[in-house]
Design goal:
The complex is a heterodimer of chains A (about 110) and B (about 110).
Chain A lengths: L8 E5 L4 E6 L7 E8 L6 E6 L2 E4 L4 E4 L5 E6 L8 E9 L11 E6 L1
Parallel strand pairs in A: 1-9
Antiparallel strand pairs in A: 2-7, 3-4, 3-8, 5-6, 6-7, 8-9
Chain B lengths: L3 E4 L2 E4 L5 E7 L5 E7 L5 E9 L2 E4 L6 E3 L9 E3 L8 E8 L6 E2 L3 E5 L1
Parallel strand pairs in B: 2-11
Antiparallel strand pairs in B: 1-3, 3-8, 4-5, 4-9, 5-6, 7-8, 9-10, 9-11
Chain lengths: ~110, ~110
């Protein structure tokens, strides 16, 4: 299973776009990249998942370049309530095992 | 309402005692998971189960045990062999190839 590497922390201001990049050099051909959001003392919540190119939903976009060695989670116009820890993980299709890293602690400032 | 529940929310244990954390889901998911989270850290996988009556060790299974007698239930026992059990415990469920749904967590403190 591929390990992922992300920045430990980031700060941003309300209304800005935030991009969090994740490195996954040894990702397997059938791995998907998945992002979760976690607030203190709560379980993580699924944000978005993708395999290649670009995926967009109502809360975020995920960009995965052709070589798939990295990916970027984009949060448009963040608010104070987006302050949380964001986890990038590689999920291998056909298995049941997910590997969480230490995550990126995003702090949104007023 | 469909979802995943954990109980209790807070649990206190004396050293040397075994305790069991409950996890129930009514999402009809085949797979269930237990994670441990220490302050400021990410989630670490303890055990997971792909199907009833089957489960596999995760990265930190020592000192823990599980059972999967029913599809809906995946209880975790923290035994006295676990040297540092104080942590936040999260249960999750999923179907193959899809997102995990997490419970609210149980915070275990050893006195």
């Amino acid at each position: 299973l591929a390990k992922t590497t992300q920045p430990i922390s980031m700060d941003s201001y309300e209304g800005q776009e935030v991009n969090i990049t994740c490195s996954h050099n040894n990702i397997a051909t059938n791995d998907y990249i998945t992002w979760y959001q976690q607030f203190p003392s709560q379980g993580p919540r699924f944000i978005i998942q993708g395999y290649k190119t670009k995926v967009t939903n109502e809360v975020a976009s995920l960009f995965i370049p052709a070589d798939r060695k990295s990916s970027t989670l984009s949060l448009p116009r963040v608010s104070l309530s987006d302050t949380a820890v964001y986890y990038c993980l590689a999920y291998t299709s056909g298995t049941y095992k997910y590997i969480f890293g230490t995550g990126t602690r995003l702090k949104v400032l007023a | 309402d469909g979802g995943i529940t954990q109980s209790p929310k807070y649990l206190f244990r004396k050293e040397g005692q075994n305790v069991t954390l409950s996890c129930e889901q009514n999402l009809n998911h085949d797979a269930m998971y237990w994670y441990r989270q220490d302050p400021g850290q990410g989630l670490r996988l303890i055990y997971y189960s792909q199907i009833v009556n089957d489960f596999q060790k995760g990265d930190i299974a020592e000192g823990y045990s599980v059972s999967r007698e029913k599809k809906e239930s995946f209880p975790l026992t923290v035994t006295s062999a676990q040297k540092n059990p104080t942590a936040f415990y999260l249960c999750a469920s999923s179907i193959t190839g899809d997102e995990q749904f997490f419970g609210p967590g149980t915070r275990l403190t050893v006195l």
